[in-house]
Structure formats: C-alpha cells, structure tokens
Records
---
Amino acid sequence: MNVLRQLHVYYREKNYLLILSILCLAAATALGLVYPNLLRRLIDDVVGPGKYEQAPYLALIALSVIVVKAFLQFLSGYFGGRLGNFLAYRLRNACYEKLQFLSFRYYDTAKTGDLMSRLTGDLEAIRLFIGFGFAQLLNLFFMVSFGAVMMLSINWQLTLLTLITMPLLVAVAWKFETKIHPAFQEMRLALSSLTTSVQENITGVRTVKSFAREPHEVEKFSERNERYKSNQIFAALLWSRYFPVMELLASVSVAILLGFGGSLVIHKSLSLGELVAFFGLIWFIIGPLWGLGFHINNYTQSKASGERVLEILNQPIDVKDAPDTIQLAPENIKGHVVFDHVTFAYGNKMPAVADINFEAKPGSVIGFLGGTGSGKSTIIQLLMRAYDVNEGRILLDGTDIRKIQIQQLRSQISTVFQETFLFSSSIRNNIAYGIKDVSMEEIIRAAKLAKAHDFIMELADGYDTVVGERGMGLSGGQKQRIAIARALLTNPKILILDDATSAVDMETEHEIQTGFQEVMRGRTTFIIAHRISSLRHADLILVMDQGRVVQQGTHNELIHVEGPYRDVFRIQYADFLSRQSEGKDEVNPA
C-alpha cells in the first residue's frame, strides 16, 4: 500500500470522485441483496400459498431495482473513469516534467524503450486500478459483509457452517498475491527490454542494414520475446495452480449448503424460500472471493507499475539550483570563463579531467584538440553544468557557475554538438527552437551565416520543409548546418562548437569558418575539433590527453615545438609538407 500512498498526492484534490465512486458501487451492491429476498418471498409467500396475484408486483420491484442499480453502477464507472484519467494526466505530466530536469548522469544509463514503457503501459495499469480496480476491491468487502449479515439474519448455524472454508479461500488468495507480484515485476522488466529492442532497431535501422545484421536483430528480438513469453507462461502457471484450489474451496461451501441446508428444509427448520435465498447469498459472497485473485492480479500489476513510475518521480536530480542561487543581469554578462583546478570523474571511475586550469577572456576563442576520451567534451559539459565538478570551480564573470541559475547559465550558451539532432518538424521550427519569438528575417540571417540558406531554398517547401525523424532526409552536412544556424540564432555570450564542421567537406568548412569570424566577434567561443584548420585562428589551444592539458598555446607557438599538436599537424598536412620540401608549394597552411 506504500505505493498507493505515494501516488495519492497526484489525485488528492479529486478524492471526492473516489468517494462517490465507492458509495455508488456500495449502494448498487446493497441493492443486489434485494434479489435473494424477492426469491424468498416469491417461493414462501406467493408460490407456496398460491397467491399468484402478487407476482407482478414482485416483478415490478425487481425491474425497479435493476434500473436503479444500473444507474448507480454507471455513476460509479463515470466517477471512477474521471478519477483514473485525471491521475494518468497528472502522472504523465509529472513524469515528463521530471524527465526534462533529470541530470545528464541519469540519461547516461537510461533506455528510451524502458522510459516509453513506463509512460504508456505502466501508467495505463495505474489508471485502470485507481479508476476502477480500487473501488472493485473495496466492493468485494462490501459484498462479503452485506451477504454475511443477511445470511446470519436467516440462520446463523447454517451461515457459520457454510462459510467455514472462507478463511482458507482468503489464505490461498493471499498466497497467490505474494507469488504473482514478483512475476509481474519481472514481466514489466521483460516488456521494457522488448520495447527497448524495438526502439533501438527502428532508430538504428540504417546501421543494421548497412552491416547486413537483420538475422542478428531478429535473433536478439526473439530472445527477449522468449523471455517475455516465459514470464507470461509462468504467471499463467501460477493462475492455473491456485485458481482450481480456490474453486474447490468455493464448491465445498456450496456442497455444505445443499447438504445441511436441505436437511433443515426437510425437518422444517428452514423454509424452501430461505434455502433458495441462502443459495443466492452464498454466491454473493463466493463470487467476490473467487474473483479475489483477479482483483489481486490488478492490484499487483498496478503496484509493480506504480513502483516503476515512482522510480522516475523519486529520482534525485544531481544538478540543480542551490538555495543561494543568484541571477546575473543579462546586460552585465561578458562571457569571461575561468577553469580553476577543475577535476571531475563519472561515478567511481578514474577522473575524466584532472586539475584543469585556463582562462577564456570575453570574446576570445579557445580550441581543444585531443584523442577520443581525452576529456574535451567533458570540459564543455562541465561548463554547461551537465555535471558538477568534484574539485575546483568554474567561474563565469567571476561567479561560480554553481551559484548561477541553471536556466540563465544555459540560456547564455549555445552548443552545436557533433551528433546533430533535429526534431520532426519544419526546418524553420528547428532553427528557431532556442527562441520563443523570432522573425523570419532573423532565421534566414542565421541560416546564411551557417551556409544553409542556399540548400534550404532548393527544397520543395523551403523553410517549411518538414524533416523526418532525427533529420532523416537530409545529409549529415545539411543537418549540421541547420544545427549551427539554430545555435547562432540565440545570440549567446558563449558559443560551443563540438566538432561542428566534422560532417561537412573542406570547402564548406572554410565557408562556415569565414562566417564564424563575424559570429564569434564579441562572444567567447570554445571549439572542439580534430582538424587543425578549425583551430588555427584560436587565441588559445589546449591539447588534451587522458584528462589533462599536456600543451597549450597558439597555433604558431605549438607547431614550432615538439609535442602532440605538432604530430597531428604533420599527419594532417603530410602531403602539403612533402610538396613544400620539394619546393613545389610556397604557401604556408598555417
């Protein structure tokens, strides 16, 4: 029940809907007791004495009860449906909002398919139980209580003897719950794994086909599908093991009723009408207890689903605004960045960056060069506060970024990532994503600076062209130029180019770099690149290796000293240097 208590906060203001649903269902259940009593009167007061003229009145009463009971059941379903939908709406919004603010650390291990499963299948299970199942579970108590009281009022000895197996029936149902709950937890995990497999396959279908790995993907999906099927079969086996036992116990009660109750009728201790009413009332009790497993099944499914949804909602946010957060005046932000003895590690791993020290003055260009895993991107993510540093501090205009509102900090930074992501929307909307209100002229200007305007105008619908999911339908270079335009449009104080021109050819790169000269003016720019040509104009170049700065200086300084930078330069310009040594080229690429 702890799960339900935690979920209660999301529908507390609609408690009246739950109360109304339960009251209407309880009233409908109470009206159900009229049927056995009508049968008793029909047999003892109408058929026995031969007063058949009263039969139409009893039929009219039965019809009236049916109409009122149906109306009450409708109201119960209506109120329950409203409650369930309200809860699902609140939970879905809460989960989505929480996912927006969860730190990068959470997404380092999260799986898209698993999250989708939680926001769809798990939420649906919770909605059905809170909206309908919870009231039905309480109604089971009402039916058993009302039926037992009515039976006791007729004949208490027969009641006690008939219900002697009921505690055993409840015990078996409870045992069933303890077995089925872990099974449903495992089933949910298996379904998440299955969903993740489908999502990854659809996302990476081009990679799958390019490596002709369709059979491997089919086999991988089959294995996960087999796991899900096995869990379903195991749950079905539990049902098949426990439900016959519950049916047997229920049948024993009916047999006792027929045997002992029949003898009471023969000895005139019980009327035939009372025995018939008793028979109806015993099913009034056995029916709910018999279906106890079904209600427990719904409860355990919703409990397992609730745990998975609450896991998202209760997930701690690693990076968040501190209580003493300040807000800088936008007009005073210059973009002066200082890394002061910064060290950071992902989890318990070795430091990704260690003792990083450098200063980026307002309007300067800082370049990063290094191999994969050298810590270049980590430095940028720390600047954006994707993670908080373990040691040291990062200053923006003299203020520790941990004391600046995250939203304000990131609003002053625009990033073009190496892996470009575009939304399934028009090119215009993708470029304007970072700003709420922007004119078409500003969008076109940003596109021209990114050298994207010409190819956009060649498309059938121009800026209104809708790109496919993740930008499918555009080349890598085209997507990257749109991403660059998106970054430029926000007019940031700090511009980050994470290998932003890696997907374009050398000629286009030169054109974009030329456009950048104007864009970078007055902005602090950080460039991560593998090409020397992208870094040679930087005011300061940091050469990274295994999380440390092993060289720093300008391009002209670094190519004249032995070290990693000069080695990379020699590799990238090997052909040019060879031609120069032969006297065939007098142009200095630097």
---
Amino acid sequence: MSKSSASRFDAVVVGGGHNGLVCAAYLAAAGLSVCVVERRAVLGGAAVTEEFHPGFRNSTASYTVSLLDPHVVRDLNLAAHGLVVRERTFANFLPLPDGGYLKVGGGIAATQAEVARFSRRDADALPGYYAMLDRVAAVLRRMLGVTPPNIRAGVVRDAAMLVDLARTGGRLRGLSLPERRDLVELFTKSAGDVLDRWFESAPIKAAFGFDAVVGNFASPYTPGSAYVLLHHVFGEVNGKPGQWGHAVGGMGAITQAMAAECAARGVLLRTRSPVARVLVKAGRAAGVELASGEVVEARRVVANVNPKLLCERLVAPEHLPEDFRARIAGYRCGSGTFRMNVALAALPDFTCLPGAHAQPHHASGIVVAPSLAYMEQAFFDARTHGWSRAPIVEVLIPSTVDATLAPPGAHVASLFCQHAHPDLPSVLPGRTWDDARDEVADLMIATVNRHAPNFAASVIGRRVLSPLDLEREFGLVGGDIFHGALSLDQLFSARPVLGHADYRMPVRGLYLCGAGAHPGGGVTGIPGRNAAREIVRDARRRRH
C-alpha cells in the first residue's frame, strides 16, 4: 500500500503551517508514512498569500523573510520548487515628527553617515554594536538546531541528551568573558537598557528597539525584551546574515514550495480537516478525530499548534499530569499585534522624502515609531486603554519589488501594528475586537497619513486582523505570532514547559513541532526540523 493511500499512518501532523510541512517532509524522507491535516482551505498556516481585494494579493499574516533556516531551504529543495527571495535595498526607514528621517542599512558606511546627522558619537559606536550583535547571534544560530537539554527529576534521559548537554556547554565555553557578559545582557536585560548604554540619539535607538517590540506585548524597557531584539537578527537571506527580504509571490510561495516537496515525498496533505481531539489509547497517542467524526489513525501525533491550544483544547485533561496542565495554563501568549493589508492606488508620498514614484525607501521596512519613549507609551496605552493612541506601525510595500501582487500602477502594503491588547474586554468591559476593529484600523491608517498625507486617500481596500481575528483564523492564541512569549522563562529548556523541551509531550507518541517549541517563533522551519529528528530517533528505537 502506498503512503498516500494508507489507512493508518506512522505520523499525523496537526496543522499545515510551515513547521508542520517541514516536519512532515523530513519524516517522509526518513521513510515514515505521513498525513497532514489542516483546518483551513489552504496550506501554510499564517504564512500564506491570499487575495484580499479584487486584483490585490498579499501575505495575509506573516509578511517578511529572514529567519528561514538555510538547511530547510536546501533540504526541502525550495528553490527548485520556485522560491525566490529578493533582498531589501536597505533595512528600515523611519520618518520623524520634525520632518526628518533616518535610513538604516545598505552597508555600515551608509548607516554611519545617516546616524552622524544625529550623533557623531553614535555613528562611531555602530561598528562595535553590530560586532557585538553578530558575535552573540552566531552563538544563538549554533544553538537553534540543538534539542534543548531536557533534565527530568535530576536525571539525564539518555546518552544522546548527554551529547546535547556537552555541545551546549561547549558553545558557551568558547566565548570570551566580555562576550559572555553580552550574552547575559541580551538574554535578561531590556532592549532599552542595552541601547541606552550604546547610543544617545533617539532615532537610532528607535530603529534598533523596534525589533524588541515586534510581536512582543511589552515596553522596550521590559526586562527580557533585548532577547526579542536578538531573536530578530539571527536570520539571513540568500546566505547574507542579518538581511531581510521578500518572497516573490508572498509568504505563500514558501509554504507552497514546502507543500510541493511534501507531495513529492508521498505525504498526504488534507485541507478543510479541523481536528476535534487527539486520540489516546493505553496512554499513547493513537491518531486524531476530525470535527466531521472521521478518525485518522497514526502511531504518533505531531502537533504544529500553540501548546495551549494542544493541551487545553485537543488533549483531554485526564491524559496530562496536573502540574503540567497548571504550567500550560500559565504559559503566556498574546503579542499585541494588529495586522492589516491595504490596496493602494498610489505609493505613500512622505513629507520628509517627497514623491509618490517608487524610491528606495518604499522598498524598505517603514517604521512609524520615532523613539523608545514613544514605544513605551504605546504599550502603556494598550495596557490601560485597549490600544495605543499613538501606535507603532511598520509598513512594507512588497509590490515595489514584486509586480505579481497588484494591478499595474497600484500597490499592496502590509501594516504590522503594535500595540493592541490581546484581551480587550479585560481593560474595556463591554468592548470586543469585533466592534473595535475598524476604529483601530482607521487609527493605524491615520498614523501613517501624518507622515505621508496622501496615504489614507490612496487606500482602496483593506483586510484587518485584530488579535482575536488572528486567533480565530490561524490558531494564534491571543494573537501571538510566536506561539508564546519569548521570555527567559519560556525559552530553550523551558519552552514550553521545563521537562518537555525536547519536542515530546507528556503523552507517549505526542510531539510538538511548532513555534511553541525551541527555538520559538518566526518563519524558520527550525522547530519542525528539530522535532522530526527526535521523532525519527524514537521511531528507530521502537524498531530495535
């Protein structure tokens, strides 16, 4: 019987997002029969490209490329399946309230020249700051593909775990004392504290500090936010570390290439197949029951969903230890993200850099957030009033480098906005995101319009996703794009819960392969790749 027609599989993957597809592809390559079941009508999870206005297509949720693991790109033959990633000309453009601007990227000399307009001292400090980040990011990159040491009750599980422990310790022992200090700072301090030590001018601190609040419902002065900054710089595009880019055809081009490789390896891919529950027999995962009542039997279940969704909605509580359930209940989700796609009749005409014709800054990440103080106030507003009165908005206009997304002469823009309270009724009783959605969307557009006065008038269509919409549409609990906060208590051996960081859940044969596992969120494919390695290891043990 072929893999695609098997009635019982070696593995069923719950969720056809990018990590689920990556995991399925690696499992199939190891000879396992695999079925992927996806609730939505399209594979790709939050990394999809969809038409949101007649003639206009864009990446619906996830919207930019950098963290995608080069091993995944190579091993899954993504380029052969048509994936092309175009690099940004430079990284970020910040229009400023006084009519000025800052451009970051395009080489160290170009950025230094920009920063020198605000502070000669900061321009001189840039090479040292970049070198520090590069050193720590290099350590982080080496740890991404490691299964976190998973010590239970003071006992190391097996010899393989001893090897992982030794490798992890070796990576840290190789650092000099100053480098270890940098590592500790970036894992524990706030981004604001780190940036205040390096720089004096508000614009450059804002440019770097933005990475600390992306998808992170926190102030840039929240302890641990420096790690979120670091998490956003370990990636690469086309072999160039630290670069960001655009997948031609949108983020769906990545997941469609992954799906094509899965199909080539014999994986059965099923859409419109929501899972109602994980089946457990004799203490072991035995498959899933779909909402339709259909049962998909499997020797193991691999979950590419948020850990809270898995353990609170799909697995019956009697199958999980009481303390584990309590820890999952306390697992923190909610990134404060408000996501919009807009169809534009014209490019934004910025007061500080006039012109609605395509210019290099239109192809960068356009960040409306001029200072760390602005970002902190945005967080405080959301905590107390539900959303930021002066929000943080990043605008990307992918149609400037990808004409397939919009009609000739028109454009599409992604607006990634912070902060919106993930639980709006808790701070505004009687209000929900369903009735506040358009009010906040208008505010986001008005925020950009203050810097580009033609922007609001050029919007001819939009799709708006509040934190609640992100949860309902993509299973992002609390709208959390990372499947859980990237804080020290939820990283590495503690992700998602101490004692279960090795992708194995408390139920035998149940695995976690999504962003709620190490190393966390972003379109990386690394959790899927790492989980597949552990699943194959277990499968081989069972055979012998």
